[in-house]
Amino acid sequence: MPKKQSRAAQLARQVQAVTGLPYTECLKMCEPTEGSWGRLARALHAVGLLEAADRLVAADAVTSEASTWLSAGGAVEQRFYYSDHVRVKHTWDACSDAAETALNRAGFETHSYAPEAETYHAAYLALSEAGRLPDARLLARAALDVFADDPTWCSDVIRTRGRYPFTYDTAASLDGPATPTSVSARKAARAMARAAAVRFSGDEEWHEAAEIMVEVVWHASEAAGLPPLEIHPHSRDHLHDFMDGEIPQP
To answer: What gap in Å lies between CA 2 and CA 60, rounded to an integer?
Structure first.
C-alpha cells in the first residue's frame, strides 16, 4: 500500500498539474522552510502560549501555500514570457486563483494585511510575556524578527484586524521585573497598543502609526539584546528623516 503523501508532495502535484513544470521543481517550491513566523511560533510554544502558537502556524501555512502558487506562476512567466504569452497568461491567472482560494479558505481576504496582522498579534503576546520575565531575549528576538523593515507598511499592518477578535488593551496592565530586557519588552508592547489605536483616516495618521512602529522596533531590539534598529536600517532612516533622530520618552 502506498504511503500517504506529505502535504508538500500533494501541493507539488497540484502545482505541476496547473503549470506543467517538472515535478522536482514544483516539489522544491513546496518544501517547508522555517521563517520568522515559524520561529516565533516555536518561541510562543516554548513559553506555554500554545493557542497563539497554533494560530500563527496555521497563518504561516496558508500564506506559504499562496506564495508557492504565485512563485510557480512567476517561474512560468520567467521561462515562457517571450515564447508563449498565452501559456503565461493562462498559468498566471490559474495560479493567482489558486492563491486566492487558499487564503479565502482560511478566512483571509485576498488583498489584505490580515495574515500579517495576526503575526503582529502574536509578536505582541510574545513581547508581553517577555516583559513578565527577568530575561527573555530569545522570545523578544523572535518577536522582533517578524516586523518588516518598512515603518509605513507596519503602520497598515498594526491597524488591521486578523481573522479573530484581538485586543491590545492588556498593555496598560503589563508589569514585571525591572531588568532592562523586561522593561524594554513592555515598552515595545505598549507602543504596539498605541500604534494599533491610531485610526485609519489619512496620511497624518498613517505616518503617526509608522513613527510609533519605529518605537516598537527600537524597544524590541533592546529587549532582544541588540543595538536599537541594527537589523532595521530603513526604520533607522525613518527615525532620522521624520523623527529628528529621537525616540519619544514616556
So the answer is: 29
Place of cell 536600517: 233
Residues 6+ apart with CB under 8 A from 102: 62, 65, 66, 69
Give the pTM. 0.92
User: What Rg value do the Cα atoms of the chain yield, rounded?
Assistant: 20
List, for residues 36-95, the tens digit of each pLDDT value.
999 999 999 999 999 999 999 999 999 999 999 999 999 999 999 999 999 999 999 999
Number of H helices, E strands in the chain: 11, 0
Q: How far apart are CA 22 and CA 17, in angstroms?
A: 10
**Which residue numbers in the chain have pLDDT < 70?**
1-3, 250
| Per-position DSSP letters for 30-83, written without gaps between them | HS----HHHHHHHHHHHTT-HHHHHHHHHHHHHHHHHHHHHHHHHHHHHHHTTT
